Amino acid sequence: MADKAKIRARAAKLSAEFEAAGALPVEMPVLLPADVLLDLYGEDIRGRAYVTSDALRGEQMLRPDFTVPVVQMHMAHGADPARYTYAGEVFRRQEEDQTRANEYMQVGYEVFDRENSAASDAEVFAVMQEALKGVELRAATGDIGILAAAVAGLETTVRRKRALARHIWRPRKFKALLDRYSGKAEMPASRAALLAADDPMTHDYPDIGLRSQAEVAERIQGLRADANADPISPLQVELIEALLNVRETLPNALEHIRVLAVDMPAITEAAFCLRDRMHALEARGVDVDTLEFEASYGRTSMEYYDGFVFGFYVPGRADLPPVATGGRYDALTQVLGQGREIPAVGGVIRPGILVQLEDAA
Questions:
Q1: Which residue(s) pair with 60 in the sheet?
Q2: How many domains does the chain fold into?
Q3: Could you give the strand order of the β-sheet that contains 324-328, starting from the edge strand earlier in sequence?
Q4: Fewer CB atoms < 10 Å away: N or C end of the chain?
């Protein structure tokens, strides 16, 4: 493990490059209000973050990433457009692999710009790629927005589409729901027994939990309606699965997605966005003919991204986390902006891994 002084020096160099690209340097607090993160991610965040409390400020979390506080800062008083860079530690609990760092440095580059989303996507990717120049890395890209559009276009109930959209970032759960909604899998026995009861709200034990009886009854009513809905057609399931299996160089992936859009018109607009991004990347000097694109990329680790996603990896080193990751998070700005929004995209580099690679070279 490289010493902290060397990592901080590498981080400073990256920050200087991002400033030269037009970013304003900003500082973010280390302690963040837990309620904001819990509202965004639910209780799952507790498994990844260090939680503490304050008599005046309530529950707090050590900063698990920079995106949320940067978005909050920008939505409160940021210029339009704006570019920011930052550097500092983030903290992640590790309960399964003690070799993975629970505290490490990140250096970021974020763009808030309404003008041209494709150009902003390409800018962030190209700035990151330039900052990583000289280190042999594999780049991977994807687009969460294409799968989200496909789900929104399914011929099924709104409740089912919302459930699938909520679990896009949980591939196993997503697959289980798709199988159940298409009739490939049976409803869990416990749920089936609940729905079969004449009046499941009649019982002789005390109420527990935070939900009222009215909320539970409404949930049961929704589950019954869902159980009686027509299954998603085999063709639509086949198209979703074909989309998830797209893994090509970017130009070939675009052609494959265009073919799927013939039978899945809901993804047509997303395919146009992918095309525009590819051209914008070319204009930035990125070799798109060799750039990897995976329709499923980012589904297990990039929960707040809703469009373009990317990462840079060390070839043959599956033991190392990505050197850099990033993506588009338009919806997050609306959530944290209390109704206001602005298209946003950004990425982070881990200078500690860069130093480790450069020392070994």
A1: 33, 52
A2: 1
A3: 24-25, 82-91, 103-112, 344-349, 324-328, 308-313, 138-143, 292-294, 247-249
A4: C
